[in-house]
Every structure is written in structure tokens, then in C-alpha cells.
Design a protein that fits this description.
mainly alpha, 0% strand, 285 residues
């Protein structure tokens, strides 16, 4: 399978997973748990970290990689005193269920969606979870019976599997968390302002840029040099390679899976709930 197809499959399932952070139903669930909803981060950290259990800031910083440790320590472990992980997981399932039912309508019980869920679970079974803590934590959760929820859980495992592999690729490339963001901004993946959501200070950002400049990876203006472009291309290639096994396991059925999931992805994107630009380098359009 061409690695371009692996990346396209990620871009297809990423919005399906991401609705957990942006759908109003999840905001309602977070509020019902007592989590603040005037900003997105308490809900984000709770909903994403809950499969790890009552994880502390060191573990979450390590697995997320690109967030400032100070930022994570603002929310963890404090959020678990408000909403323990088991309750967060139940709320996550409830919110995703309601969101998908709203988006899919009568299609939620369609044979096409059931077929997509079967293919997604087949892909998950082919994922090597060694060294993939976020994917493994989600894979340890019980599978929902409802196809739309099983499809969402599979999409979540597969996107976290890719993300875990991306961290491995960044480590192999010698890019620390701040350098990972600075180098991604340097190739124009998103404006620098988008990466500010990870809350590294201006001084930390500038220091990372200086380190990359010393390696010949960015120029004086912070733009990627040819060497910087090559390194980022290598990171993305390794990420694709590490994420490829689940999609290769589907064989020719990968096209059928894409056909089945595309309407759901389109429905999520069409709501406008997702940010126009993200730190993943994916545009909403």
C-alpha cells in the first residue's frame, strides 16, 4: 500500500475521532460532570486522558508530547477530583452516542455503518500496540455493541496509534516537544499562533528555534531550510510507515472502508465545529 493512502486514511478518520472534543453534546456531558466549560482544556484533558486512569501530569505530558508540562499541570490531576476517569468514560460514550445519532440520523442503524464498524475493528486488530500507550489504553476499553460507537472507538484507537508512532518518529529525529512544534510551523503546517495553544513561552519557542538553527534546520526568519524540510518529510514518512499495518491488513477493502466512512467525515466537517487550522496540519476544508 502506498504511504499516501495511509495518510489519507488518517485524514479521513481524524474528524470522526475529534468530534469528542468539539461536539456540543460532549460539552454538555463535561458540564454535567462539573468540569469547567468556559475553555476547552479541562474537558479535553479529561476526555482524552481517562483511558489511562487517574493519570498525573508527568504521564500525560509524556504521552501527549507537545504540550507544555506547566499547562498540563494546571489541569491534572485536579480534574480527577471533580470527575473520576470511569465517570468521564461513561460521559464520553454518552456524548459520542448522542452526537453521532444527531449527525447520522436514520443512517445510524444502516448496514453500511455496521459494515464500516466491522472493517474498522479488523484494522485495529492489526495494529501493533507495543510502545503505543494512548492507543493501548483505548484498546483496553470494552467494545460497544452499537456499530456507530464501535466505529468511533476504532477510529480513536487508530488515530492514537498513529499519534504514538508520531512521537516515536519525533524522538528518532531528535526533535524535543518544543522543537517539534517550531519545525512544523517552519514548514507552514499552520500559523505560529495555532501552536501557541500548547502554551510554550515566547522564550522557550525562541530557544527551540535557535537550537534548530544551530542544526541548520531553520533560517534566521524561522523558515525551514532544505535540511529542515527533509527532516520533517522523514518524520512524516516514518509516521506513515508506523501507522500502515492496520490499513494494509484491510487489503482491497480499504477503499470500501473509505467509501463507507466518508459521509460521516463529511457530516462532521460540515457542522463547522472543528477548528479551521489545527496543530496536526489538517485544514477543516
Amino acid at each position: 500500500m502506498e504511504l499516501t493512502m495511509v495518510r489519507k486514511m488518517w485524514q479521513l478518520i481524524e474528524p470522526v475521532h475529534a468530534l469528542v472534543y468539539y461536539a456540543p453534546e460532549l460539552t454538555e456531558e463535561a458540564a454535567a460532570l462539573g468540569l469547567p466549560t468556559d475553555e476547552r482544556w479541562p474537558g479535553y484533558f479529561a476526555l482524552r486522558s481517562a483511558p489511562l486512569g487517574a493519570a498525573g501530569p508527568a504521564l500525560v505530558t509524556a504521552t501527549y508530547y507537545s504540550f507544555s508540562p506547566r499547562m498540563i499541570a494546571e489541569y491534572l490531576p485536579a480534574i480527577w477530583a471533580t470527575a473520576e476517569p470511569a465517570k468521564v468514560l461513561a460521559a464520553r460514550t454518552s456524548g459520542v452516542d448522542r452526537a453521532l445519532r444527531r449527525l447520522l440520523g436514520d443512517r445510524v442503524d444502516s448496514p453500511e455503518l455496521a459494515e464500516a464498524a466491522v472493517l474498522a475493528r479488523r484494522a485495529v486488530r492489526a495494529a501493533d500496540l507495543a510502545g503505543c500507550p494512548l492507543a493501548a489504553a483505548n484498546a483496553d476499553l470494552p467494545w460497544p455493541d452499537a456499530p456507530h460507537l464501535a466505529l468511533w472507538q476504532a477510529a480513536t484507537i487508530l488515530r492514537e496509534h498513529r499519534g504514538d508512532g508520531h512521537v516515536a518518529a519525533l524522538l528518532t529525529a531528535g526533535l524535543d516537544p518544543t522543537e517539534a512544534l517550531v519545525s512544523f510551523a517552519a514548514v507552514g503546517a499552520a500559523p505560529v499562533e495555532v501552536f501557541a495553544s500548547r502554551r510554550w513561552t515566547g522564550e522557550e519557542w525562541a530557544a527551540a528555534r535557535e537550537r534548530l538553527a544551530a542544526r541548520g534546520l531553520v533560517d534566521a526568519d524561522g523558515a525551514a531550510t532544505d535540511a529542515g524540510w527533509r527532516l520533517r518529510d522523514e518524520v512524516e514518512r516514518r509516521t506513515d510507515e508506523l501507522a500502515a499495518a492496520p490499513w494494509r491488513a484491510l487489503g482491497p477493502a480499504v477503499g470500501r472502508f473509505a467509501q463507507l466512512v466518508a459521509p460521516l467525515t463529511g457530516a462532521v466537517v460540515a457542522t463547522g465545529m472543528l477548528p479551521e487550522r489545527s496543530t496536526l496540519g489538517i485544514r477543516r476544508d
